[in-house]
Amino acid sequence: MLEQIKQTAEFLKKKLPGETKIGIILGTGLGNLVTQITEPVEIPYESIPNFPVSTVEGHSGRLIAGKLGGVNVLAMQGRFHYYEGYNMKEVTFPVRVMKAIGIDTLLVSNASGGVNPDFEIGDLMIITDHINHFPEHPLRGKNHKELGTRFPDMSEAYSKDLIKKAKHIAAKNNIKVVEGVYVGTSGPTFETPAEYVYFRRMGADAVGMSTVPEVIVAVHSGMRCFGISIITDLGVPGKIVEVSHEEVQQIGNSVQPLMTLIMKELVVEVSK
Ligand code: HPA
Q1: How many domains, the chain?
Q2: pLDDT at position 242, please?
Q3: pLDDT tens-digit series, residues 7-20
Q4: If you count Cβ atoms within 10 Å of the first and of the last residue's Cβ in the chain, which end, N or C, has fewer?
């Protein structure tokens, strides 16, 4: 794996416009941010050595290097989900590569179902913490010291400083944000009503099928992380209705510009 990371990082470094310290992973159908990237260099996943290839509908599957608000970024449009059949090493491989390239800050987005009764569809939730409910851990197996420590501390997986900055940006732009705990679970089924209640009682505010593996690996490798989730449906007793992938994407689409704005200003703020 170490050799593969190195090989892929070297391939990508040649394509980057310059030193890049910020990586972005965009969730299902949340590619709107890439329209804001100037001087873009698009690199389809198929063309990247050792990269898995994204298959799920709504994902274009490419890396985009360029400038966001004048700051160099490397964005993943479309991620690798565990439910697609990738193992955790594959799901998190791009994060390892980002680190090897020199990226030290990871911003992630996703769509999720709200289980906090105060949430509304279309809310933007700043992720304050997560619960790992995946059946496989991305760090299970031999630990390579070069990549990180055996028992990583997770007391601040989501940078308090980045959360504070993002809240400030949201307030300044009159964007409503909520905060909460994201539980990542394997999918691909959406939850049964009983499972939504279970996740709520567990301490979650929203549930989704991604992000947790990538953030674990990012923390393991010493990166600081920030995540935003778009609440596309509600898993709240009395408010649970049938949910489809299309609806999730539709709601995601309508709120994307606000999320893009927060991410863009955060990138600028972080690079100061
Ligand atoms: N559950 C899991 N994943 C999701 C949901 C949900 O309700 N909505 C969007 N992604």
Answers
A1: 1
A2: 80
A3: 999 999 999 989 99
A4: C
- pLDDT grade, residue 106 (50/70/90)? very high
Atom of ligand 1 nearest to the CA of 243: 7
Ligand 1 centre and the CA of 193: distance in Å? 12
Residue 245 three-state SS: helix
Taking residue 57's Cβ as centre, other Cβ atoms within 10 Å add up to 9
81 in ligand 1 pocket by Cβ < 6 Å? Answer: no
* pLDDT band for position 56 (cuts 50, 70, 90): low
| Alpha carbons 9 and 126: distance in angstroms, whole number | 30
The domain in which residue 241 lies consists of 2-271
How remote is the CA of residue 188 from the centroid of ligand 1, in Å? Answer: 9
Query: What CATH number should be reported for the domain holding residue 116?
Result: 3.40.50.1580
